Amino acid sequence: MTFSTADLVDEHGDDLRVCDTQFRQFGAHRTFSGRVRTVSCYQDNGLVRELLRTPGDGAVLVVDGRGSLHTALTGDLIAASAVENGWAGLVINGAVRDSAVLAGLALGIKALGTNPRKSSKAGNGAVDVPVGFGGVTFVPGDSLYADDDGVVLLS
User: Fold this and answer.
1) 49 marked as part of a ligand binding site
2) For residue 101, which of 18, 25, 76, 150 is within the disulfide window of CB 3.0 to 4.6 Å?
3) Measuring CA to CA, how many Å separate 144 from each of 46, 81, 86?
4) What angle do CA 121, 76, 88 make, to 5 degrees?
5) 77 is in an annotated binding site
6) Cα(97)–Cα(117) distance, rounded to whole angstroms?
7) What class of enzyme is it (predicted)?
8) Mind listing the pLDDT tens digit for each residue in 80-136?
9) What are phi and psi of 85, to 5 degrees?
10) Which residues of 71-87 are buried (b: 16+ CB within 10 A; e: fewer)?
11) Which of 89, 94, 90 is nearest to 68 (CA)?
12) Is 98 annotated for ligand binding?
C-alpha cells in the first residue's frame, strides 16, 4: 500500500476530511487504510471485542470512546483477534493497553494513549453509527487512510 495522507490532501482538497486529533501510533503497520466500521462506547469494550471477532475484510474500526483515558478499549488479545480476522486497523478515541505487544502486531493502531486498567465488558454502546471527533464525522462505509501524518477520510 503506497499513499501519503499529505499527498491525498493535495490531490483531493476539500473533498477530503482531515481528523485534527493528534493520535499516537501503536501497531506495527504505521500506514493503513480501509472501509470504516464504527463503535461508540464509553469505558466499555464489549462491542469492540465482539466486532473484532468477526471477519474484518480489510476494514478499519473507528472507536469513539469519548476521549477517555481512564480505561483501555483495546489490549493485546482483542488486537490479536483483529489481526486473525483480517482487520486493517483501529483508530481509537481513547486508550489502549499492552502497548509493547501491540507494537509487534501486523495491524495499524492509532489511539490517544495508554492505561493498564481494563474497561467493563457489558457491551454498552452502538455499532456502525456515525461518530465524531477531531472535527470530522466518521461514517460507516467511508474510506479511511492513516499514516504518521494523520487520519483522513473520503466519502
Assistant:
1) no
2) 76
3) 23, 21, 16
4) 95
5) yes
6) 8
7) lyase
8) 999 999 999 999 999 999 999 999 999 999 999 999 999 999 999 999 999 999 999
9) -100, 10
10) bbbbbbebbbbbbeeeb
11) 94
12) yes
Element (DSSP H or E) covering residue 66:
none
Q: Which residues pair with 111 in a beta bridge?
A: 24, 92
In angstroms, the Cα distances linking 98 to 104, 105, 106, 124 are: 11, 11, 15, 23
Q: Which three cell numbers stand for residue 45?
A: 469494550
Helix (H, G, I), strand (E, B) or coil at 72: strand
Residue type for position 110? K
CATH class (in words) of the domain with range 5-154 = alpha beta
Strands (E), 9-106: 17-19, 24-25, 32-40, 60-64, 72-74, 89-96
CA 140 to each of CA 25, 96, 98, 103, 106: distance values in angstroms, whole numbers, following the listed order: 22, 22, 27, 26, 23
- Whether the model clears a pTM of 0.85, i.e. scores above it, the answer is yes
The domain segmentation of the chain, as residue ranges, is 5-154
Q: Is 75 annotated as a binding residue?
A: yes
Confirm or deny that 142 is annotated as ligand binding: no
